[in-house]
Amino acid sequence: MIKHNTVKATINGMAVEVPFGTSILEAARSVQVNIPVLCKHKDLLPTAACGLCIVKVSGNRKLPRACATALEDGMEITTHDTELTEVRRTTLELILSNHPNACLTCGRNGSCELQTMAGEFGIRQDDIPRYVRDLEPDCSSGSIVMDFTKCIKCGRCIQVCQQMQNVWALSFLDRGINTRMAPAGDISLNESPCIRCGQCSAHCPTGAIVENDETAAVWEELRDPDKYCTVQIAPSVRVALGEEFGHAPGTDVTGKIYTALRRLGFKAVFDTNFSADLTIIEEASEFLERFAHGNGELPLITSCCPAWVDYMEKRFSDFVPNFSTAKSPQQMLGVLAKTYFAEKSGIDPASIIQVSIMPCTAKKYELERTDEMYASGYKDVDISLTTRELARMIKQSGVDFNRLPDGEADSILGTYSGAGLIFGSTGGVMEAALRTAYFKVTGKNLEKEAINLHAVRGMKGIRGAAIDIEGTEVRVAVAHGLANVEALLKEVREARDSGGPIPYHFIEVMACPGGCIGGGGQPYGVSDEVRLQRIKGLFDGDESMALRFSHENPDIKKLYDDYLGEPLGEKAHSLLHAHYKPRPAYQR
After folding, report:
1. Is there a contact between 212 and 145 (Cβ–Cβ < 8 Å)?
2. Is residue 363 among the annotated active site residues?
3. Residue 4 confidence (pLDDT)
4. Residues in contact with 490: Cβ distance below 8 Å, sequence separation at least 6, in sequence order
5. Which of 50, 363, 384, 512 is catalytic?
6. Among 108, 328, 422, 505, which residue is least crowded by beta carbons within 10 Å?
7. Closest by alpha carbon to 283, among 484, 449, 420, 403?
8. Whether 372 is catalytic
9. Which domains can be identified in the chain, with CATH numbers?
């Protein structure tokens, strides 16, 4: 039997031709027909769990599920009619019968896919008696909150955790009506292998998994007249926050964010891009120490992502010697806010509250990961909020975000280069580091188009490249999504253990698909299409900047001249570096 490259069929009387293997669900979308579904996400394989995407196929007495059924030649499909609508409504009512009636106090109120669909189907009363188990939420991780009563058993979180991230912290427990999502063995999330990346929350259609909301704590600090509240925003937040206010993904709203933060009451507004530039100086210097002078293990592996750090310590602790000791930009800026900034501004560091706005739920965990996160003598970053939490604060405050004028960051910790900006994308840390490493080796900058290192860009899960630096080959790799990371590190481990040459000298890892632009705390509705738009926003911003090299940032130069001394020097090491140790996957 010969397989054709495309198949032809009709959907609601409209002719459709799609590539062989396309599901009915995707084929329908190609002709602007949306079949309702709760279990299928664009990132994930179909599970056919919710039963809402049933359709009629002429000549077939069954009602196949569109997400898991491939379109075939000659199919005549009906996606919507009275009978299908009634079956879907009954299915929704059955789902709701196991779901608490707590929309007003739910973290997904207004963005819940189940809530939206119930509204679209006109469900106004409970026709089926509710049976909701009395289960306490799991708040043990400090980063995300799991409310088992709101789980609709779609399986998205489990597929993300097991297949995309290879963490295996979540599974289904019990059977029948009592089936629920939970850590294997029914232990707490904090005891499980969870790395707090938040991809489960980003893909959950309801409020069963949400970030730990700390906005009330930030409001309390802002209202305290004795506190000097400062804030920093991560690179990827600026190309994602606008989605919460009707902008297209990738729209750069940096200036509006600065203004909004001042309107909220922050006395100093910093930019994590500044400390991303600082991270590059330290990390590129560290790479050259290892690569050119043999002072340390190769490959050097980046350590900016706290979910990846957690995963490495639990699952790949034999790579601890390979890890860059440079802290993440969040932590570098936090310690400088309570040392360098406090000293220059004449402010008592004990009064400074440092809040970070991050795309990531794991950043909440990073704040107290080790004693080294108190290098200033105080907790370096006091509270970390996700992009979603900042959006809620802005809406609560009454600020008309879209009409705000563009503001500026405080220059002492706010000036940044395009290299710092692209940190938010997979491959961005590698590209920024190589720009500076090239300069440190050759004494000159990459020129014109050579600045854009396309070899490390893109959305492929693992990307390898050989970069020529004045006749010396530097082999690099980029991996994002932890299932891809495992495959890459197994390749490196195999080469190392066999005594052969190492395949790479420098490796960048990001736990979340797409890097920070796809972080677990970013606005809901993520897909590769959205990720690519956000990435484009960052790289467009880089190309529009006059300053594109971290080592040319004038405030970074001043920081070293006035305060830190030399990169990797004694003071820089005490404030800007950390260490790692093996830890068990299951905590007791």
Report:
1. yes
2. yes
3. 67
4. none
5. 363
6. 505
7. 420
8. yes
9. 6-80 (3.10.20.740), 94-211 (3.30.70.20), 216-576 (3.40.50.1780)
Range list of H helices, 416-480: 418-421, 428-442
Q: Residue 579's CB: how many other CB atoms inside 10 A? A: 9
Q: Residue 299, preceding bond cis, omega within 30 degrees?
A: yes
> Which residue is catalytic, options 372, 486, 491, 552?
372
Identify the band that residue 510 occupies on the pLDDT scale cut at 50, 70 and 90. Answer: very high
Nearest to 525 by CA among 116, 148, 155, 180: 116
Whole-structure pTM value: 0.94
Distance, CA of 357 to CA of 382 (rounded, Å): 11
Q: Which one from 243, 244, 282, 286 is the annotated catalytic residue? A: 286
Q: How does residue 3 score in pLDDT terms, banded at 50, 70 and 90?
A: low
Which residue do the tokens 């900016």 mark?
A: 304
Backbone angles phi, psi at 259, to 5 degrees: -65, -45
Look up tokens 């050097």; give the residue: 300
pLDDT at 2 exceeding the cut of 60: no
Backbone angles phi, psi at 321, to 5 degrees: -65, -20
Active site residue 286: yes
Return all residues near 17 (Cβ < 8 A) that are at least 6 apart: 6, 7, 8
**Catalytic position from the list 304, 305, 360, 512:** 304
